[in-house]
Backbone:
């Protein structure tokens, strides 16, 4: 086996490992095996007062509070993981999963104190980084395409002032609308 084939094979192994790991975690989320679900708190957790709660418990209750949030996290992990299976979509999968894994690592560091969970998160993240490194030429080409701009066209001062004015008006309308919603929905 030559070096190129070894590289392709090792990248595929990494992609498959991340796929399996994230599918396990995503499926656990979707079927209630991860987080304390709203209305389904274990009896010992339900008895803890807010002043006595540890970071793990409060994090697990918070993350499981919204069914839709858990659904979003689980489905996003599944989508990213499944994209890893095909060469044409693997980099999209990596780009979806990198921020998810960084968030999980920070969450594990700050709240959980469960070092096995932190270890699997870091290992999975490093596998994604290695996939990026194996595809650095493609990543460099994508980056070059993103930062290549067309020649600058001449914009008149009047157009610049108009653009700034419209931007300020749009921001004022946006913040006013949000403030109105806050005032109308504020619970006292």
Residues:
């Amino acid at each position: 086996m030559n070096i190129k084939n070894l590289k392709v094979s090792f990248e595929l192994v990494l992609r498959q490992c991340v796929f399996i790991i994230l599918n396990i975690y995503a499926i656990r989320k979707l079927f209630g095996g991860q987080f304390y679900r709203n209305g389904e708190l274990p009896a010992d957790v339900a008895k803890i007062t807010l002043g006595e709660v540890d970071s793990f418990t409060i994090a697990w209750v918070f993350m499981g509070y919204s069914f839709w949030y858990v659904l979003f996290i689980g489905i996003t992990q599944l989508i990213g993981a499944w994209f890893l299976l095909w060469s044409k979509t693997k980099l999209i999968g990596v780009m979806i999963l990198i921020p998810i894994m960084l968030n999980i690592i920070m969450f594990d560091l700050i709240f959980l104190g469960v070092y096995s969970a932190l270890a699997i998160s870091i290992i999975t993240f490093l596998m994604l980084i290695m996939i990026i490194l194996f595809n650095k030429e493609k990543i460099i080409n994508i980056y070059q395409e993103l930062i290549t701009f067309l020649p600058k066209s001449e914009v008149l001062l009047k157009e610049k002032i108009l653009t700034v004015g419209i931007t300020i008006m749009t921001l004022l309308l946006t913040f006013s609308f949000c403030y109105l919603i806050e005032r109308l929905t504020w619970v006292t």
